[in-house]
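Protocol step 4 of 6.
Sequence for MFS transporter (Devosia ginsengisoli) entered exactly as in the expression construct, tag removed. Do not edit the line below.
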Amino acid sequence: MSSDATVRRNIFVLALAQTLGGSNGPIVISLGGLVGQELTTDAALVTLPVSLYNLGLALGTLPAAFIMRRFGRRSGYLLGACCGTAAGLIAFLGIYWASFWIFSLGTFVAGFYASYVQSYRFAAADGVTGPLKGIAISSVMIGGLAAAILGPQLVIWTRESIPMLPFAGAFIGQAALALMAIPVLLLLRAPDRAEARQGQLSGGRPMGEILRTPRYMLAVAAGVVSYGLMTFVMTAAPIAMVHTGHSVDHAALGIQWHVLAMFAPSFVTGRLMARYGKEKITAIGLAIIGVSAMVALSGLDIGHFWVSLTLLGIGWNFGFLGATAMVTDCHTPEERSKVQGTNDFIVFGIVAIASFTSGALLNSSGWTMLNWLVLPAVALILVPLIWRIRQAPAATAA
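Step 5 output, structure tokens:
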């Protein structure tokens, strides 16, 4: 097992890499639709670049897991950063050549980069045992808070930096941030040789067997609901705010508070998991997501939107980080890559579907119906999670 000094070093390196790589998503999400609107006259295709980003993220998880299992995390992350650099340059060329499809290819490749960045949280738990896993995971996710600020600010600083090519500079910046991540990731230490040999000699249990274990199924389901519902509601919220008479500035401010609420709790989430248990924190996160929906259902004033979105961000943090920590308890070292990769493939596959369907459901059924759908989804996971929490003391006593 890695020494304490190596573990602390890796957590710091991964948090810094999360700051650089985590900016990738906000840049694509904030500009994808705007650039798409400039490059195509087909209104149905305007948001396709953002949806392709989410699709690339989902499709990239299993290949990323395979590469990291075969060649190690550091090699995989370096390849991911190269994909991120290429993604920004391809998107820039799409704008330069006024090609919607080349630009969309760039956002799709950016999704592949994101599939590597998302696994930084799992890498933080390598060499960590027990309650400290949650602290390690949340420490890396603090980098997401910096990324949530850096990404949008980069858009503001660079959007007019290249004359006659609005927003093209932001994608050069996206490529530069990914390039800057390469020397950072080179500082990442590989696992101990004994552990690496163990992973090469045995693949552990078949993935089908692991998928059938109730503990893993519940962990994956908690991650799916936490992240899926957050994406489902967040995607629709700005449109709903504008449709109900609020300004674009108010909508943007609501999303800003939401993103800050997603990552700011990471300063304490790990310690809360260490003290109260990851299942309890996950359950609290899901409950907060349910409360956010009830706030949204209680009115359409700007305050209802802002409070709801802030609670949604906090609920996502507790729910998703808790579910991530639950997954790390479900595998042996040799099973690590395939178990974590399968988890992310399922989670981000659902996220991609939520991204595609959210706007359509808002247009067909409205903001109120969208939030009503949150409540049964939360209850579906919260009930078995509470049952497991109640069974845990009995199992310990036995």
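Step 6, annotate. The chain has two domains: 1-200, 202-398.
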